[in-house]
Amino acid sequence: MKTTSSKSESTLQNSASAVHTESNKLQPKRTADEMNLSVDVESSQDGDSDEDITPGLDDFSGLSPYERKRLKNISENADFFASLQLSESAARLREIIEKRQPPKSKRKKPKRENGVGCRRSMRLLKVDPSGVSLPATPTPPPLVADESPLLPPGPLEMTSENQEDNERFKGFLHTWAGMNKPSSKNTEKGLSSIKSYRANLNGMVISEDTVYKVTTGPIFSMALHPSETRTLVAVGAKFGQVGLCDLTQQPKEDGVYVFHPHSQPVSCLYFSPANPAHILSLSYDGTLRCGDFSKAIFEEVYRNERSSFSSFDFLSEDASTLIVGHWDGNMSLVDRRTPGTSYEKLTSSSMGKIRTVHVHPVHRQYFITAGLRDTHIYDARQLKSRGSQPLIALTEHTKSIASAYFSPLTGNRVVTTCADCNLRIFDSSCVSSKIPLLTTIRHNTFTGRWLTRFQAMWDPKQEDCVIVGSMAHPRRVEIFHETGKRVHSFGGECLVSVCSINAMHPTRYILAGGNSSGKIHVFMNEKSC
């Protein structure tokens, strides 16, 4: 009996599963909402009895009560959703949405009154306000590169550009041609005390009578004549001009003479130590000339059209041999006693650029160069044609160096001006070994694009003090001791601009500063006036 009952139960289950499969095939696919609703109906009718089953399902009498109840719920749910007509409603909504799309906007055309449209600019229409057509705009001429052609080789006549009185100009040349005695350097006197030195500086004043307009462009270099009786200031300008200013001439406009011996900036000027009636000027245009007051000409000393010069100095006290620095890092050894305008020796250096060259005042075979981030000391006797190695390299700088100079009497100190806003002073008393750094002076050296770069210079009378321009307000020129202490500041109502280039008289208390507008400001001690 047990076996028979188990077989009947399995047969009933198989028939129920078959009926369930057929009902699933006959019913349409239901959505998620239909499934959820059927579940709710099933859950609500779980307590109903088998007697509530709708007649018409007798064909599935072989199913269990649960299966028949489930099929009933499915049938009712399908009829309910069919009565809602969801597909028809969705189609109607789709048609409504398509009909309600906004039409494409069309710009309204401006109304015309009497055939006249909107107002328009007559300038854009190229019509004169009176209604007459304007002439065609002329074609601008093609831009020509601003080139400064080299002046012809050979000597140039010393002709003033701003003075027309030839008699007065001849008198000027005659006066300064007689100032040909070299100044005597008294190195045995020693340095003055800072107290007396500061007292002399306090006596130096500036006035409107000592402010001169000399050149038309920024001043790049400056030198003071070593005369003890008269005051002559020489400046080199951006456009190749060399200006001479005689402060003893009255009225002061008659004491300014401007010459044009170069075609590009004059970056270095010196009065000859052997004959102060000669002034040597070096320019970016690759020429080095000597202005001779007695002959009234600018003689050509050295010429190199393939290179640009930056600085020079005298290797010998008689000014017969020179060392010339090039912007491309080369160096030239020039002997003025050799006929012609070429060099004796041309050597390259490891520096990418040379800004200044300065010779040791005692051991004149040594000279120092300032470049991008390097300061080197060389021995002129060891210069080679292909590359020269420096004796010493000063590597304490972090940015480009504007200048480097030995102290004027003993050469025991070196001052450098760096773009990292620092002045550095080194101990160069022993050139054959490493040069130690003594002092770092914080000073704003950021002059920008339009001002000439600062160059700290030693006072030739007081070689432990340096002179440098300042960006501070009110405008001033400052003097620092080698220990870093500020000794003095020159200023006044007449000093209204930055003096980037400064020079001090070798024996008298006279300071001249040049600015970017071609003016010089002169501070003088009352005893020197």
Automatic annotation (TrEMBL):
GO CC list: heterochromatin; nucleus; site of DNA damage
Keyword Repeat annotated: yes
Region annotated Disordered, chain positions: 1-64, 97-154
Compositional bias of kind Acidic residues: 43-53
Listed InterPro entries: WD40/YVTN_repeat-like_dom_sf (IPR015943), WD40_repeat_dom_sf (IPR036322), WD40_rpt (IPR001680), WD_repeat_DNA-damage-binding (IPR050853)
Pfam families membership: WD40
Biased composition (Basic residues): 102-111
Keyword Repeat among record annotations: yes
MF annotations from Gene Ontology: DNA binding; enzyme binding
Keyword terms of this UniProt record: Repeat, WD repeat
GO biological process: DNA damage response; regulation of DNA damage checkpoint
Highest taxon above the source species: Eukaryota
SUPFAM superfamilies, A to Z: WD40 repeat-like
Biased composition (Polar residues): 1-26
Coiled-coil residues: none
Subunit comment: Interacts with CUL4A and/or CUL4B.
PANTHER family according to UniProt: WD REPEAT-CONTAINING PROTEIN 76 (PTHR14773:SF0)
Family, as annotated: Belongs to the WD repeat DDB2/WDR76 family.
Function of the protein: Specifically binds 5-hydroxymethylcytosine (5hmC), suggesting that it acts as a specific reader of 5hmC.
Protein name (Swiss-Prot/TrEMBL): WD repeat-containing protein 76
Organism of provenance: Chlorocebus sabaeus
